[in-house]
Amino acid sequence: MGLAESLPDFPWDSLAEARRVASAHPGGLVDLSVGTPVDPTPQVARDALAAAADSHGYPTVWGTAELRDAIIGHLEHRWHAQGLSHEGVLPVIGTKELVGWLPELLGLGTADAVVFPEIAYPTYEVGARVVGARPVPCDDPASVPEDTRLIWINSPANPSGRILGIAELRAWVAVARRLGAVLASDECYGEFAWEAEAHSILDPAVCDGDLTGLLAVHSVSKRSNAAGYRAGFVAGDPRLVQDLVQARKHLGMMVPGPVQAALIALLGDQGHVIEQRERYLARRAVLRPALEAAGFRIDDSEGSLYLWATRDEPCRDTVAWLAERGILVAPGDFYGTRSTTHVRVALTASDERIAAAASRLTP
To answer: 356 CB contacts (<8 Å, ≥6 apart)?
Structure first.
């Protein structure tokens, strides 16, 4: 059996009919499904990218010293990390590739379990399946199997928007250390915490200043409207990070030089992040009450760029109901067997499209 045959069907392909119906609406399609940023990439990134365009030499997998400094500075100033060194940070080609390939790069195999949230971004499971590891959806640190080698947590979560508190994060750190497992924390939505404070596992309040076994994963795709740049980074335990560096050198996994320059610029500018937060908060303030007025209940959704909505019916029925109104959303069954009555409604549409969706939902 080839690799493609061993993986689940690509979920977005199953939305073709709903997209067709929604696109036929007289007012046009409102696409709230994928969650791709629609607002402009900050000028500071464009300028840095252009200035570095004469990039005739190969970039390094580990990134420039200037980029490593920028990553460390960002994690220290924004996320309260302590004890990071250059050996403990690494740029990556967007974080989806890291999520998908991390089990392979860590040397996991058929004897190992990979744990991830019960309602989760599907690539955590795909990465486990690629290496033949056992995927284990689990939200309870006390129930983690003894053969677990990698644990994924995600806060604020995609799709549900749930935010883990410090006590919950500390419980995951404790179980990972007891088992000798790697704890990888997907923190890509950290800037978008609405109803609770988001924390990094690199914060001493969570890890007691000990980075052993910990990896924090960050991206500028959503934070900076730079999804097309494919720029992110991983940071934490220097031994683990250097193992990743060495493996990725052999595999040619390097962030392009101009993108590294843009990443430095974006990490050094918090102003555009504040502006983007305000945009999403305004869209959330329009869309959430409209969904509630239409009979939806919004669960979790303390953070991230989505509303986790339900009418307590099969999620595909909800997708079809919204498609008839020209609105396309993601069905909860994309994200696990515990989410078959929810849909994920993205805030990543223009103000005009969000207003159009709200008007179609209002009784």
So the answer is: 27, 28, 30, 326
Nearest to 26 by CA among 359, 362, 363: 359
Tell me how far apart the alpha carbons of residues 147 and 137 are, in angstroms, rounded to a whole number. Answer: 14
Instruction: Give tens-digit pLDDT for 104-159.
Output: 999 999 999 999 999 999 999 999 999 999 999 999 999 999 999 999 999 999 99
Q: 331 by DSSP, 3-state: which?
A: strand
CB 234 within 8 A of CB 98: yes
Please report the pLDDT score of residue 7 as a whole number: 63
Report the alpha-carbon distance of residue 231 to residue 227 in Å, rounded.
Answer: 8
Cα 114 to Cα 124: distance, rounded to the nearest angstrom = 8
| Residue 1 scores a pLDDT above 60 | no
Give the CA distances from residue 173 to residues 51, 152, 178, in Å, rounded to whole numbers and listed in that order. 41, 11, 9
d(Cα 1, Cα 107) in Å, to the nearest integer? 21
Distances (CA, A) of 343 to 75, 187, 337: 33, 22, 13
Give the sheet arrangement for strand 330-331, strand by strand.
297-299, 306-310, 342-346, 330-331
Q: Beta-strand (E) ranges in the chain? A: 30-31, 89-92, 113-116, 134-137, 148-154, 182-186, 214-219, 232-236, 297-299, 306-310, 327-328, 330-331, 342-346
What is the C-alpha to C-alpha distance for residues 84 and 197, in angstroms, rounded to an integer? 22
Task: Name the DSSP class of 37.
Answer: -
Q: What is the DSSP code (8-state) at residue 344?
A: E
Query: Counting every residue, how long is the chain?
Result: 363
The answer for residues whose C-beta is within 8 angstroms of residue 277's C-beta and 6 or more apart is: 191, 192
The span from the CA of 105 to the CA of 116, in Å, is 17
Place of tokens 């590294």: 260
Q: Could you give the CA distance from residue 262 to residue 233 in angstroms, rounded to a whole number?
A: 13
* 227's tokens: 């999804």
- CA 178 and chain centroid, separation: 26
